[in-house]
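Run: sequence + alpha-L-rhamnopyranose -> complex structure.
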Amino acid sequence: MFHRIPRVAAGAALVIVLAGCSSSSATTAPASAAPAAVGSIVMIPKQVNNPYFDVAFKGAQNAAADLGGTLTQVGPSAADATQQIPFIQTAITNKVSAIIISADDATAVAPALQQAMAAGIKVVGYDSSPAKGAYNVFVNQADTAGIGKGLADMACDVAPSCTGEIAVLSAAQTATNQNAWIDAMNTTLKDAKYSKLVYDGVVYGNDDPTISTTQAQALLSAHPNLKVIVAPTTVGIVAAAQVVESKSLIGKVFVTGLGTPKGMQAFVKTGSSPEFALWNVTDLGYLAYATAVQLVTGAIKGNSGETYTVAKVNSGAPYTIGADSVVVLGPPFVFNKDNIDQYVTSFGF
Ligand code: RAM
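>> structure
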């Protein structure tokens, strides 16, 4: 189900409750807060030059400061799994205690991650899951089916009378998270409620602003009657909104999907993107790091049914590890003109 309930001030905010190049940056927790038991933890995002992953890293840095350990972020500058593998191998060589990874391709990174696990390194997936068996715990940002339904619902909301052609501008073709969401969206679109929405298919912008722009333009050329671009990627949604505005299509073509409040604020106000969603990305990074600490210290094994609490996330209420060792952060938020300013301030991203 996809409920929306008031969250901050009445009517002001909404929650969806849902059934070869490299660069690096690092932070070190204060020595006093770093018990030897936690050790060195490496975070490997899909790509390092995506603001979304900078926010998740900030959350993980906050957790390192609170919980101890030394955190480093390394990763490719393009969302490309073959470029993630050398970073995993270096982490194995460096005998880190845990790897936290958003997989560009679930299966491509699996052998290296399994090698890490065999060496005693704990592996936490976050954001985009590695293949089953290639992580100890996957920290999912929200229920996958629920995100898919949310995308269909937002497309229906922004398309006048829930009618017209819609198409998806995704991230990388191999991205586990986007592919699962798009599948779930298409399942939802079969429902009679969405019978007047016509699905034109999906194109891939690789979470690259230039490629995403080109792909958004191509969608508009290929489908002159397109009403909605659904971009379930923080990079793609901005590119799509920019293309709609540069082609003077505000009010004719609508953009929705998953974006950061800051990145999308201007487009909500002009009306090119009346509504979109995202989760608290800082909390996602915090929970991923805290989960790694739980595994490294032996507090959890990563088995389904285990519970643990993280004081600063979920109001300190326990998380339960579910099927396939997946933990779900919590429901995402829907942003619109009534609440966008408030969320830019409160989330800060
Ligand atoms: C992009 C990435 C990330 C995804 C968000 C919504 O930043 O593809 O994996 O979770 O969008």
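>> summary
The mean pLDDT is 92. The first strand starts at residue 2 and ends at 6.
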